[in-house]
Amino acid sequence: MKKGFTLLEVLVAVAIVGFAFGTFIAFAGKIVDTTDLLFKTTLSSVVAHNSINEILYGGKSFNDRKVDILNCTVEVNQDFEELMGFRVTKVETGTEDRGKLAEVYEVR
User: Fold this and answer.
1) Residue boundaries of the structural domains of the chain
2) Per-residue pLDDT tens for 7-62?
3) CA dist list (Å): 104 to 52, 82, 90
4) Nearest 5°: phi and psi at 52?
5) Cα 75 to Cα 48: distance, rounded to the nearest angstrom
6) Residues whose CB falls within 8 Å of the CB of residue 43, separated by 6 or more in sequence, listed in order
7) What local confidence, expressed as pLDDT, does residue 92 receive?
8) Helix, strand, or coil here: 57?
9) 64 falls in which pLDDT band (50, 70, 90)?
10) What is the pTM for the complete model shown?
11) CATH says 7-107 is which class?
12) Domain of life of the organism in this record (predicted)?
């Protein structure tokens, strides 16, 4: 009897290893994408809360303004509305590539 592997066995083993490696690379890509989304959402939330505090207590305007934070540009839009005798301040933040990521409301 001859010892060793047949060509078919080697091809099947290479296919299995290739499939496993491809799956690993796909999952790694999704992890990187999810981490980027969470990072930008966190930054947008921080910018939204800081902006609404500066609007209410500092009298600043943040309409169509861009804020650079940690090598990321966050777009800030504000809106005021009167609702049943209350003044509602709304701040939306997001990035160009992800769109709107956070909204903060303040009612007075």
Assistant:
1) 7-107
2) 999 999 999 999 999 999 999 999 999 999 999 999 999 999 999 999 888 888 88
3) 7, 16, 6
4) -65, -35
5) 10
6) 69, 70, 72, 74
7) 94
8) helix
9) confident
10) 0.76
11) alpha beta
12) Bacteria
